[in-house]
Records
---
Amino acid sequence: MARASSVLRIGNASGFYGDRFAAVREMLTGGPLDVLTGDYLAELTMLILARDRLRDPSLGYARTFLRQMEECLGLARERGVRIVVNAGGVNPARLADQLRELAQRLGVPTAVAVVEGDDLLPRREELGLPEGALAAHAYLGGFGIAACLDGGADVVVTGRVTDAALVAGPAIAHFGWTAADLDALAGAVVAGHVLECGAQATGGNYAFFGEHDVDHPGFPLAELYPDGSSVITKHPGTGGAVTIGTVTAQLLYETGGSHYPGPDVTARLDTVRLTEDGPDRVRIDGVRGEAPPSTLKVGCNSLGGHRNEVVFVLTGLEIQAKAALVRRQFTAALPPGSRPAELCWTLARTDHPDSATEEAASALLRLTARDRDPAKVGRELGKAAVELGLSGYPGFHLTTPPGPGAPYGVFSAAYVDAELVEHAAVLPDGRRIAVPPAPVTGKPAGVRQELPEPLPPGPTRRAPLGLLFGARSGDKGGDANLGVWARSEEAWRWLAHTLTVEKLCELLPETAELPVARHLLPNLRAVNFTLTGLLGEGVAAQHRFDPQAKALGEWLRSRHADLPEVLL
């Protein structure tokens, strides 16, 4: 597939399982593409697909993708667009078989290849992975995808690869890169990270959304070059926007420090340079790469127990006293021996004084119960809440009747020696090619991080941080990531010196008792925080109100601080 001097145009049509169904057709008809990718997997999705496979061994993949191909496979083949997706989930071989049957039924000749080796559940004991796991999948890199494309695949189906590998793999095949081309690989990984969440790169979930038409943002594409540099853009006439801000926001999403390790390369995010390259075009260059770690990350999903939730509505006056009363009554009403292992009460003061509507005069008291025993979060829990109906606080009612409880999942990350993972490309003709792990030696990029000069002292005004700074946040297992960026050099000077770990914990009291790390990214004029343990055992455990920390950045932007008037 290698054509070392040409540009490779890679588009994205899915950022998660459930993303815009029409995006595949939109991307195929909106303009020229060489490759169309789709990211369907997340930590929670792997648990959902694993449970699907438990019920029915023929399932475990993203069924939406098959329906999209029923509509668009002929169009893709007609236009010569190759497709690379991780929609295989926990059963990629089955999805590939289904796709071949579909192609035959449609009369559209299609060569389908599969990347395998990520599923480590059959080797759980040998590799020392957690007991009770429903799924255990290594994050593979892009070289297996490249082997499939070099083997003539029109469609490549994978299981758990890194999100960025969906872009890095086609680039490896197209440009003929080897594992020694660390800078080029790192550039492709950065481009892949920008594309992986679809419309988040084109104005979706963007802090300054009011500056652009984002009612129906188009999906992004990258023009990749032989040196690993790229231009992020979108098809002409589609909604949204591609700006330095939208690209910066996505680069800060679910990343940590300056080193972004992956199975093929460690990309140095502190070397990324962003420049405007015309309307809706942002160039990414300067990315340096270092050797990858010797281990691969393994996402392990298991059932953590059972949970239930009861939400009490508290209206009008004396909200705190009403909340205290129901807590005392509920605790006393639980029969001996039926108390769940964990009872968590959260009072959301959504009430407003002297409100013109009843809903706006009400607060929500949420009780979350967890236990290994489903009986302890089931009927007796709901019964204890309902029986308070006529003997509790004035105005007692619930948002919904209590349900029977439901199982919840737990995500954990493990690491295994890359040499022990049997990464393989299964080509369209059935040949199976082993993909060796990347070498782990190489010269460090040697980049220095330095604080900018502080902003001179001057008058300040109390105002929301979001007037000056953008933010984006997300989850990595039980940890949260929160990136904050400035839009001017002067604002960056203030941000770098003022938004310390201590200041962040002051602004976000929920984080005060957690280990928090801060990372500087001067080229992006950004700071990125990792908040360890904020999300408990991961999104499936529903540890907090916002279980994926999606809105953590917007909460920070709403907080008030003493901002320099010269910036305002």
---
Amino acid sequence: MAKQNVSEQFVDILVRAGVRRMYGVVGDSLNPVVDAIRRNSAIDWIQVRHEETAAFAAGAEAQVTGSLAACAGSCGPGNLHLINGLYDAHRSMAPVLALASHIPSGEIGLGYFQETHPDLLFRECSHYNEMISNPRQMPRLLQTAIQHAVGRGGVSVVTMPGDIASQPAPDRAVEHALVTTRPTVRPGDAEIEKLCRMVDEAKRVTLFCGSGTAGAHAEVMEFAERVKAPVGHALRGKEWIQYDNPYDVGMSGLLGYGAAYEATNECDLLILLGTDFPYQAFLPDDVKIVQVDVRPEHLGRRSKLDLAIWGDVRETLRCLTPRVKPRTDRKFLDRMLKKHADALEGVVKAYTRKVEKHIPIHPEYVASVLDGLADEDAVFTVDTGMCNVWAARYLSPNGKRRVIGSFSHGSMANALPQAIGAQFVDRDRQVVSMSGDGGFTMLMGDFLTLVQYDLPVKVVLFNNSSLSMVELEMLVAGLPSFGTANKNPDFAAVARAAGAYGVRVEKPKQLESALKDAFKHKGPALVDVVTDPNALSIPPKISAEMVTGFALSASKIVLDGGVGRMVQMARSNLRNVPRP
């Protein structure tokens, strides 16, 4: 049996860790690793057109599966292109192993062609970032990198010079059992007892949930019922907590709706469950706050805490719920449920009024129809910008669907690359990319990746020929819009020219049939929907303190844009409210 080289050993360890594909673009320093993948039937090389796509795709795969995913870039410019997608994966706590191949080891530090310093460049977007400078570091260094990515939830970067990758692997290399799953973290009894006392002493308790409630839906509902607490959520908590939730009072934040803001500000005990919600302006400063999070560095980052609980949400609530006193008083809960339903009723007409005749098409209407037609277990990937608004307002979670976006990093151009990673996990599962024309065109080259691999991703393009979220930011700041207009082609024609299914929709009556036909198509498809760039209406009162981006003023700012089917759920929840 021929002796392994370092690249072959590297690939074998990835396979043992459960990695089934590596996304990237080939290149000289990376060629030995790619060749090792070519000769290993247990792992595939996924050729993309841009390394940023590779990193986004790996991050999405990791979020869908909960397991380690991998990407790679060749030396210098190649691995530099990974950095934006890696930032997104890291901030999304997606376990990703990135290989940054490097110039020949004997040339490092001498200004060689394409020389960069990956050990410095990736430091901020990784838990672990080291270079293999000697074959004897394998496989221990790679195993350590994998355990950092999986155990801490985020990115590990391994830098490897091309000449090292081709050298013989060391004899009697130490290989140990790999960590491929994360443990649960249970708080101590003393913290549970303190929290129990605080809950029992509080008259009005509100729960505010983030992505850390994944897998804890039943426990959150049981606790909310026991203490009669309204349940609000952040954007990343929506898919995990909103469905089958009779205590739902909506979402807080810039894209918020319903009564979540009132519920979090009118309680006397606010419990933050698995959320690193960044907008302090929406959090109260005059009520007691408890935060439960599996990552201790998140505790107290956004608000002053009366109690910090280090533990995962499910285990914490399993310990806490049996100990707190059950309540029968629903006055606070029922008042918040009614406020929530009334608030939704007030804006629901925004997408139902004369939609059949409105040209350009209301984007709210597009999102509403898409929500109704998509599969019950569809994966939606959502571009940053106005697509975030429409996804937040109109996509209906049900415990089976997934919604993935650049919700923490806030990058443009994420939806299409993330759809690629989600679709490779399961070709039979419906994957829908909700793309804006700005984000889509930024990495449009990787639409060809869909065609090359015949991936059945459905791209629904919200084409308003503008960077409309940026226009909103400029408007709020008192600036005229500038540099935000896009001169776009007929994207459906571009899709057809590339070898995919493409259809352009300019009238509302064409929308439903166009989406149905695209969904029936076996391969990649693009639906180019010409939407109204003026769809977002602004509240009549805007604080002068409001700044650009997703930062908020000291007052509550709510964007009026409809709420889709959520009003139906809110009204159904009111059936439990006693009538006077």
